[in-house]
Write a structure and sequence with these properties.
Blueprint: H1 2-8, H2 14-28, H3 39-77, H4 82-102, H5 105-116, H6 121-128, H7 132-159
Helix pairs in contact: 2-3, 3-4, 4-7, 5-7, 6-7
Length: 160
């Protein structure tokens, strides 16, 4: 199954994430396993579906980030301080991306589903297989961690 996932993804680092999503999907749909005639084909189908979902999500995230960049560029070109604002905006976005990369995968995923994808707590809870209260807690924790990471990035940059 790992070979199937690896062959469909261009990012080798993403294979482990997708494998975890496959495991979650299998656990979520374990009642169907007794009805399945060929378990291998069923697992293959789940693997392909999870790869497609991962690629869609990363594509949406990339389009969202590109859209933000384009909006910032358009807004800054009409301004007298356009180049300076563009530079500051680009630097700010880079810091946010850098801070997001330091967060644990689940916290990053919750933040991106909420703010990049616009998912509701209910949708996130169903997707991740947890309660809405867990999503609320994780989102609060992820925001706090992101804020802390951004503050530490600003402090370390100021010292350089």
């Amino acid at each position: 199954m790992r070979t199937v996932v690896r062959s469909r993804l261009k990012e080798p680092d993403a294979v482990e994430d997708v494998m975890q999503n496959i495991a979650l999907a299998v656990v979520r749909h374990r009642e169907m396993l007794s009805e399945v005639n060929r378990a291998g084909a069923w697992l293959y189908q789940i693997a392909v579906r999870q790869v497609l979902m991962y690629r869609r999500t990363t594509g949406r995230r990339r389009r969202f980030q590109d859209g933000l960049m384009n909006q910032a560029t358009i807004a800054n070109t009409t301004d007298n301080f356009g180049p300076l604002r563009t530079l500051l905006s680009t630097e700010r976005q880079g810091k946010v991306r850098e801070a997001l990369e330091t967060l644990p995968e689940l916290d990053r995923q919750v933040l991106l589903l909420k703010y990049a994808e616009g998912w509701s707590y209910r949708e996130m809870a169903a997707h991740l297989g947890v309660t809405e209260q867990t999503i609320e807690y994780r989102l609060m924790k992820a925001r706090r961690q992101l804020r802390g990471q951004l503050n530490s990035l600003d402090l370390t940059r100021a010292e350089e």
